[in-house]
Design brief:
Elements lengths: L2 H31 L9 E7 L6 H16 L4 E6 L10 H7 L4 E4 L24 H10 L2 H11 L4 E8 L6 E3 L13 E3 L4 H7 L3 E3 L6 H6 L5 E2 L4 H7 L1 H4 L2 E4 L8 E7 H5 L3 H35 L4 E4 L2 H21 L1 H24 L4 H8 L8
Helix pairs in contact: 2-11, 4-5, 6-12, 8-11, 12-13
Amino acid sequence: MTKRHKDKTSSEKTSSRRNFLKVAAAGAAAAVATPALAQTGPVNMRWQSTWPAKDIFHEYALDFAKKVNDMTGGDLKIEVLPAGAVVPAFGLLDAVSKGTLDGGHGVLVYHYGKQNALALWGSGPGYAMDANMLLAWHKYGGGKELLAKLYASIGANVVSFPYGPMPTQPLGWFKKPVTKADDLKGVKFRTVGISIDVFTGLGAAVNALPGGEIVSAMDRGLLDAAEFNNATSDRVLGFPDVSKICMLQSYHQNAEQFEIMFNKDKYNALPEKMKAIIANATEAAGQDMAWKAIDRYSKDYEEMQTKDKVKFYKTPDSILQKQLDIYDEVVAKKSVDNPLFKEIVESQLAFAKRATQWEQDTVVNRRMAYNHYFGPNAKKKT
């Protein structure tokens, strides 16, 4: 081999080595710019609700999961198990926070034992707001930021989406009609959240139980009376089998809603596009839940009267007023002991004063229209 040929070969090798180094450097730069490749295949999440499988509330949880699964085209697949499948109903927050579950469906008042201010999302009169108005406060009046602050204060590793406004809940199921506040004294009663303090103030002996345990406790005499939520849930859980008296209307849970909860690490790992779908699916599921509730609750309310022979009574105004008075006393005490509780109450009051004045001044009372079309003196409509 000539010297000239050797020099040319050496030059080619050097050039080739330089090109290789350039390519390697470019690859390294790309790796720095993109630290992780996008996940291939669907993201699978295992959830649990706080409801028995037969309850319409668990159906709402499945409805939400289906909306997300469909809207992501199967890129996110949420499986929802009923209460007790992995942890007890009241253990949901801990399980999601620790990552035992990826998420869950429940209500914020079930976390009352962790931080009593969490019950302000639904447990009480809502300062004259209904559940939809309280959700308006949550989204536009500062509630979302306060809830994040609240969860951070107890070290909960979760992301929360309140949704699904519930209608006013009944006072509860009793052995006989309740005519005055004193009728509640000594009654072994089931409720949750701040309502525990309210009914205790009314003289009841309160026992907080998950929904799936209430009817059996009444059947065994461990409870004299109880409240849960609505005509459909109450009927399917078996309340008409252990009581034929239900008192309608109450301030103890006038403005409650559901909660979608994700483990924060699992949620933060999702692509931004998927997070946007979750946010919009939550709102869509909330509205769908409200529509379904009107249809199903009204049917079961009617059938409990005609088929199950349940008698419904309106809670006397004297009891409703007593609830408000006791609630104010409870809130005043908790506000002294818990600065976050006080901050949330003040935020709700400010929003409610403006929103409820607008509502009361603007929205027509539909009782006149109801009486006109369906009341005892209504003319027969063709």
